[in-house]
Write a structure and sequence with these properties.
The chain has about 180 residues and is an alpha+beta fold. The chain is built from five helices and four strands, in the order αααβαββαβ. Helix content is about 35%, strand content about 15%. One of its GO terms (biological process) is cell division.
């Protein structure tokens, strides 16, 4: 459709007003009368309130005059004594001795990240761990239920170091690593 060459719509003709609507006033006379009464009442209220505040001030009893009395001399206050705090000097000369127990060093911590039947699967996980910058080992163990290839990291001196490496592995999307107290 071509809007540029389209014909303009014909202008609308205004509706004709009837004589009844034009003859009737927009506001009825009783609304005007009510507004005048309300404004007059409000003005009268304001005038009466303002006049009462002046009457109250005028009606207050006159002040009683007291005979002039010579002011007595107040006794001189003693000088403020110098405060001397002893605890400041006592604290400066004190030494606090705290007994901190030595942390017990337990067995070394090892972190196991997987246990596989196939050595190829264990080597694949070891390669993924190496890509994250950590060194791991694959240990083969034989038990009553067959041969297992475990992927382990460590040994760590404390749990905090093992937790730090586990967080690195979790950021690299390797989950499920567990920290154990294992002896080598």
């Amino acid at each position: 459709m071509d809007y540029a060459n389209r014909k303009r719509p014909a202008p609308r003709k205004p509706a004709k007003k009837t004589k009844k609507a034009a003859a009737r006033p927009a506001v009825s006379w009783w609304v005007v009368l009510l507004a005048i009464v309300l404004v007059t009442g409000f003005v009268w209220l304001l005038v009466t309130i303002s006049g009462q505040s002046k009457k109250v001030a005028v009606e207050s009893p006159p002040a009683v005059e007291t005979p002039a009395v010579q002011p007595q001399q107040q006794p001189a206050l003693p000088e403020k004594p110098e405060e001397r705090w002893q605890y400041i000097e006592e604290l400066e000369n004190q030494e606090v001795i705290v007994d901190v127990p030595e942390r017990e060093v337990g067995p070394p911590k090892l972190m196991q990240c997987g246990s596989f039947r196939n050595r190829a699967d264990a080597e694949e996980l070891r390669a993924m761990i190496a890509m994250l910058g950590l060194e791991s080992q694959v240990r083969t163990t034989e038990g009553s239920n067959g041969v297992w290839h475990r992927v382990i990291l460590g040994p760590y001196e404390g749990r905090r170091a093992a937790e730090a490496d586990r967080h690195k592995l979790q950021r690299g999307k390797i989950n499920g690593c567990q920290i154990w107290n294992w002896n080598l």
